UniProtKB/TrEMBL annotation:
Recorded coiled-coil stretches: none
Database matches in InterPro entries: BETA-OHASE-like, Fatty_acid_hydroxylase
Ranges annotated as spanning the membrane: 6-24, 54-74, 80-99
Keywords on record: Carotenoid biosynthesis, Membrane, Oxidoreductase, Transmembrane, Transmembrane helix
All copies of domain Fatty acid hydroxylase, residue ranges: 12-137
Protein name per its UniProtKB record: Sterol desaturase family protein
Similarity field: Belongs to the sterol desaturase family.
The species this protein was found in: Halodurantibacterium flavum
Amino acid sequence: MNVLINVLLVLGTVALMEFVAYATHRWVMHGPLGWRWHKSHHEETHGPFEKNDLYAVCFAVVAIALFAAGSLWWGRLTWIATGVTLYGLIYFIVHDGLVHQRWPFRYVPRKGYLRRLYQAHRLHHAVEGREGCVSFGFIYAPPVPDLKRQLQGNKSIRPELRPEVSPRQDV
Ligand SMILES: [Zn+2]
Ligand SMILES: [Zn+2]
């Protein structure tokens, strides 16, 4: 029973973190203040790191603080901290790895849900600037045709991507 509760705590935290990440990405990182760090991620990167990586550091500090609180006060917090860490790992694999290829090998998903996640986040980057972007989540992505529809008529689509977001073509 205890094991089940702990597993549910980890999985529940991963699900909850998707909401936290979505809200942070949409309203903080794309907001006027948070954009100061996130802008670096929507521009061409020079060097291995970008200012936006500081957000990952912030989430890591939260996870470490939860692990510490778990060992000092309430053991179950350790499982919540594990969920936050697991979400960070999934975020790294999907976002930094699959989409932005920040690892030393190249793998682009060709089909299935991973392909949808990949395409949805590419469309997040199709817009120039912080406004009018779509798809802010990292483990849930809306259907790609819906995203393309939302982007239709958006004047800030990067010129080189305009034919790509046309609903008749595949990304
Ligand atoms: Zn963004
Ligand atoms: Zn990105």
